[in-house]
Request: fold
Amino acid sequence: MQLIATFAVRLLRLALVMVCVAAVSFGLMMLSPIDPIDAYLGPQMAQVSPEQRDLIAERWGFNEPPVVQFGHWLGQLIQGDLGVSHVYNQPVSEVIGQRFKRSIVLLGSAWLLTTLVGFALGVVAGAREGSLLDSIISTYAYLTASTPAFWLAMLLLLLFSVYLGWTPVCCAGPTGTLSQDVGLATRLHHLILPVMTLALVGIATITLHTRTRMIALMNSNIATHAFAQGASRWDIAWRHGIRHASLPALTLSLASLGELFGGSVLVEQVFAYPGLGEATVAAGLRSDVPLLLGIALFTALFVSVGNLLADTLYALIDPRMQKVTP
Amino acid sequence: MLTIEHLTLQLPYYAPWWRRRWAEVLSDVSLELHPGEVHAVVGASGAGKSLLAHALLGLLPEPKRQTGRLTFHRQVLTAARQRQLRGRELALIPQSLDALDPLVRSQRQVSWAANRAGDARANAWQAAGQALTHYQLDERSKQAFPHELSGGMARRVLVAMAHVSHAQLIIADEPSVGLDPQQRDRVLDALAALARQGKAVLLITHDLRHALPIAQRVTLMRQGRCVETAFASAFQGDGDTLATDYAQALWQALPDNHFGVTPTAQAQNVA
Reply:
């Protein structure tokens, strides 16, 4: 019973967040100086008469007040219709579906790599504070923590694709090939650099937070007691450290799903990777309101689920977080 | 079993302008622990009792300056030997309950202690279960997390962790602090039982009254120095057989005795 109540409250809160995200995104789009009809027509703008423009505006409902437009969109959303993207001339749900399939591979592998490597490095560095290994890992973490993802992406592109020629310069497959003809190896080959970029930057935060928690643990009464039992440093790191350090790492890694989405927008742009991030930029630049709102909603949902997962897992690791049922 | 001769310990502190100075926290401490005995070290806070415990186990962080001689079973107890014997021959019952890992169930923690003392994993788990039963913790407490245990139960988990190590020397740092009389007696009885098995128990406490019923010898410490080592039997009546004024004054100041402030005690307070 209590479980259902908690679940219902969470769901209600999620719905509220969604509406807020949609309203804010919609408001921002209304304030955008880009005219959606101009953006849609592109270079053919000059060949279209004002009457035809009015026709398009009427068809898309642009001459109604913004609140009514938003109402329309919300009404459709409740029926499960996200509208049609005029940039891609496809239903928004289809665009998101296709793009997400590509992005999830990129985001998923980057996220997994970030979490695992970041955590491992943090544990190793924190277990031996002040050692040479710790200095190397910390230096790396501080450097990459202050590096913007897109800049690193350009550097990597320059090094590996231009100078060394090891990796392709762009896209999810060779240009001029249909996506269903691209083999798995080629796909992975095109993924390496974007994943590397996202992971290299993301690792730093997790490493630094894990390291701090590990150092705190190694100086705590728990560690002193374990030393008194004859435990070695690695024994303590393995048995106590991993449990304690996984708490901040988990929160960070699941909360960083949002950041990863943000980072992927820039990185997909640099690598011309046809994922959700690239679609976001296209939708923004060409005032494709339905698509942008759809992506915003989808991202918000994704991040919220991530946070929900973190909340749930936290209680599993730290028994003190569990609600006491009398 | 363990002999401490002229142990002096200095720890650094920093004066203005990052000048490192050394504070003498233990000066010329000499003690002798015998198997089968509970030896109480009594002193006010800041007397250096816990530091003594940590120095015996080699748990103090660098930098430190330590002189004097520690001998365990007739062999010099060097830092390397301390590392080797910790958890196997030397065990610590820590002062603070947050020495228990809050994320680990009690039986698992005890089994880790057994594992660290050299038991194989499967044996360690069994030994942990037996030790916890021995200290009257039921199945539910064995599978409980430390925050679900009462202070007395958590304290007994700590004693069980020392018990499974089969150590010959057990250093109990304020094991009775913060417990109600019944729980306190249970923990102290457990220590006395360990001594009856032929182990040496170093009982660190600030309360002379709690130490006397189970201790054979009592050492009074004050500001890093040993004031006096006496048999527990000397603390009776007016304490006339006690050698030093400080010991006599402390004994007479207890509520059960005269609750008295003797001229010597006053003089010492002024000093």
